[in-house]
Write a structure and sequence with these properties.
516 residues, mainly alpha, two-stranded antiparallel sheet, 20 helices, globular
């Protein structure tokens, strides 16, 4: 098991050759300022138009909604962006619209929505900044630690959730929405945890200052998740139905590189959520339930279908991974001067090569498999992001290559298997030996199609599952960089066989309990 872990860690690093620093700077400017897809003020202005229209629609049944809409119609754009960036107000609008169209009791009750609309109107009349949810939070709860983000650019600050304001109508509604998600109560951060969050933010601002300001302008609230109940094992989250809020695992924020990546990742999802409200990202009538799905090959197959992504999730993943590729390239380029303050990156970021590879795969799948499910704006955005990716990807793999994505999963799960076997004796030696022989046989067959062979090994190595996986990784990794091999006629069939092997192995590991 120790040998397997060492071998898995010795596999090729996930760092891509970077483009020139000038290219990275130009790409940050482009991603943060594109008139439709990057300019946060434009995106939030379009969101405000949509929210005001929905409030007017609700006005026939809820006078409080009509009064709020009328006040917003006369407010400056920056004030509209501030108020309509409020997580709870956005939820109230969405839930009230849902109940008006489909009275199934979903979300906040209509009387509670009316109270929230009235409170928002009073907040606006009083000239208070931000939204009602954060109005009672003290300055120490600001993520930016007293440093203004610039009202003229972002229109709002981001706050850290603290439980002491639970008695206000907006806080009660927020906690009701979170409880509806089925999670344990959110954690109130300690002073040390606030310091950790701000340290991660400073690192992110150092790496990508313009993109950080843009993405965080779509986030009103950062909350810490305890590693309990349904939150257990969740690194971070930005649920589509909890608008403008980002959730981070309380136990993982200690490393600033990890925090930098996850804070940007989830903030980008919120930016795309806001974009979706004002633009036709998906085709009219698109339905999540019966739409086309693609397989996220780097995710473990499971009964919940988390490896099967619909059009919205594929587009959201593509959008995030292009931006994360830029972040990782900048982080890898600046690691040496920043490591005295923030430590080495180590395994705390996914790496630029991995981000680029996942973005490339999702972009290709969007452009082929899912294309007809995208709206006009979604198609234009896919083209734009592919152009950005081309500028960042200096060693592009051949189209259709996926073995590197499969081995990404196989390598990560090899480390999990190694850890599992070091903690306890093997539950069934014969079953492990059979699995090792099965994976080796499928790998040999795939290699034979390409006129390749596994290196010879002893019988003990043949029957020892961790060592078998080590041999498989060492034999297959070089194939992921061989462009000539990828062009052979048998390569797609060999790649499909290896996909079957990796995914079957993943399910076997899950059944064993090694992935818990």
């Amino acid at each position: 098991a120790v040998q397997l872990m060492q071998a898995a860690q010795a596999m090729p690093a996930y760092c891509a050759p970077p483009p020139d620093a000038a290219v990275l700077g130009a790409m940050e400017t482009a991603l943060a300022s594109h008139p439709t897809f990057g300019d946060s003020n434009h995106i939030r202005d379009q969101l405000a138009v949509t929210c005001r229209r929905r409030l007017h629609t609700l006005g026939s049944a809820l006078p409080e909604a009509e009064r709020l809409a009328t006040l917003l119609d006369g407010a400056p754009p920056a004030r509209q962006r501030q108020l309509l960036g409020d997580t709870v107000l956005r939820c109230a609008v969405q839930h009230a619209m849902r109940q008006r169209q489909l009275p199934d009791g979903y979300g906040l009750p209509l009387p509670q929505c009316a109270v929230l609309f009235q409170a928002a109107a009073e907040h606006l009349r009083a000239g208070l900044l931000g939204g009602p949810l954060v109005a009672h939070l003290p300055p120490m709860a600001r993520l930016h630690d007293g440093r203004a983000m610039g009202e003229e650019t972002t229109g709002a600050d981001t706050y850290i959730w603290h439980a002491w304001q639970e008695g206000t109508p907006y806080a009660r509604a927020f906690l009701a929405v979170i409880k509806d998600k089925g999670g344990a109560p959110l954690a109130t951060p300690t002073p040390h945890e606030r310091t950790l969050l701000r340290r991660g933010l400073r690192l992110l601002e150092t790496l990508l200052p313009r993109l950080t300001a843009s993405a965080l302008s779509h986030v009103q609230l950062v909350a810490l998740l305890p590693d309990l109940d349904t939150w257990r094992g969740k690194a971070s989250s930005s649920p589509l139905r909890v608008h403008g809020s980002v959730f981070l695992n309380q136990e993982l924020i200690g490393n600033p590189w990890w925090l930098t990546e996850h804070l940007l990742h989830e903030s980008l999802h919120q930016k795309l959520h806001d974009l979706r409200h004002g633009h036709s990202l998906l085709a009219p009538g698109h339905a999540h339930s019966d739409g086309i799905k693609i397989c996220a090959l780097w995710n473990a197959p499971d009964d919940d279908g988390n490896h099967d992504w619909d059009a919205h999730r594929a587009l959201a993943g593509f959008h995030a991974y292009v931006h994360l590729a830029l972040l990782c390239l900048q982080a890898e380029r600046q690691e040496a001067p920043l490591s005295p303050q923030y430590g080495p990156i180590g395994q705390h970021m996914r790496g630029s090569r991995r981000a680029i590879d996942r973005a490339r795969y999702l972009g290709e799948q969007l452009h082929t498999t899912i294309w007809r499910e995208l709206g006009m704006t979604g198609r234009h955005m896919t083209h734009w992001l592919l152009d950005a990716l081309d500028a960042l990807d200096t060693q592009r793999r051949p189209a259709g290559a996926t073995l590197h994505l499969l081995l990404d999963l196989y390598q990560r799960q090899s480390r999990q298997l190694a850890t599992f076997l070091m903690r306890q004796p093997p539950p069934d030696g014969e079953a492990l030996a059979w699995q090792a022989a099965h994976e080796l046989a499928m790998t040999r067959e795939a290699l034979h199609m390409l006129d390749k062979e596994l290196p010879p090994a002893s019988l003990a190595q043949e029957l020892h599952w961790p060592q078998a996986r080590q041999r498989i990784l060492q034999a297959l990794w070089p194939l992921t960089h061989d462009a000539t091999l990828m062009e052979r006629a048998a390569y797609p069939q060999a790649q499909a066989l290896l996909a079957q092997m990796v995914q079957q192995s993943s399910r076997q590991l899950a059944a064993l309990g090694a992935l818990a």
